[in-house]
Specification:
- The protein has one domain (4-192).
- A two-stranded antiparallel ribbon has the order 1-2.
- The chain has helices spanning 4-17, 19-32, 80-88, 95-100, 114-117, 137-141, 154-174, 179-192, and strands at 38-44, 50-56, 105-107, 133-135.
- The protein contains 8 helices and 4 strands.
- Helix 5 (114-117) links the parallel strand 3 and strand 4 (133-135).
- The chain is globular, with a radius of gyration of 16 Å.
- By secondary structure, it is mainly α.
Length: 193
């Protein structure tokens, strides 16, 4: 895995280099809908520690209180600018702050909402041995997962079909991850985006 000090430096440089893009995104979000430009998502990380994951807001204000904890197909809570940010994955860029804080890495299993994580089986909880990341093999494989999740039975589809495969994919990767494999995964993510 990439050393912590290098991830810190890359995240710091990335935040500075991307600051003009951050400013454009913030303006676009504010012009599109009321509310904060940022969303602090409750997530479960390494050792089951809870933390706030930084994202650009892509949904209407208080969307987390008006629907499921995951995004479903045709989700009407997503704003116009939010659709673009999600499609391009630009909404994930503020997670560089989480890397600076030591809560996340560039590569690691995607952290879940606490209401989702509390339903993990005993074997699935092995994922909490690893620090969560901005990207992972499962996040690439399920890049457009919301299109697979129907609004009327989201919990059955997500918990029984998608989530187990995501956890298994990420667990297999994390148990054999190397610096080289992490770097290759980062480049693969950038190519897919």
């Amino acid at each position: 895995m990439v050393p912590r000090w290098l991830e810190f430096v890359l995240a710091f440089v990335g935040l500075i280099a991307l600051s003009p893009l951050f400013l454009l995104i913030i303006v676009a979000i504010k012009l599109d809908s009321r509310g904060s430009a940022f969303y602090l998502a409750n997530r479960v990380g390494q050792g089951k520690a809870h933390f706030k994951m930084y994202k650009f807001r892509t949904m209407t204000p208080q969307a987390d209180q008006t629907g499921p904890p995951i995004t479903v197909n045709g989700d009407n809570r997503i704003t116009r600018v939010g659709r673009f940010l999600r499609r391009t994955k630009l909404d994930e860029l503020p997670q560089l702050i989480n890397i600076l804080k030591g809560e996340m890495r560039f590569v690691g299993p995607r952290p879940e909402d606490p209401t989702v994580a509390e339903n993990y089986s005993e074997s699935q909880q092995n994922i909490f041995r690893f620090k969560p990341g901005i990207t992972s093999p499962a996040s690439i494989a399920y890049r457009s997962e919301e299109a697979m999740i129907p609004p009327e039975a989201w919990d059955q589809v997500y918990f029984n079909q998608i989530l187990p495969k995501k956890i298994e994919t990420d667990l297999q990767y994390m148990q054999r991850a190397t610096v080289f494999s992490d770097i290759m995964l980062i480049f693969k993510t950038l190519f897919k985006v």
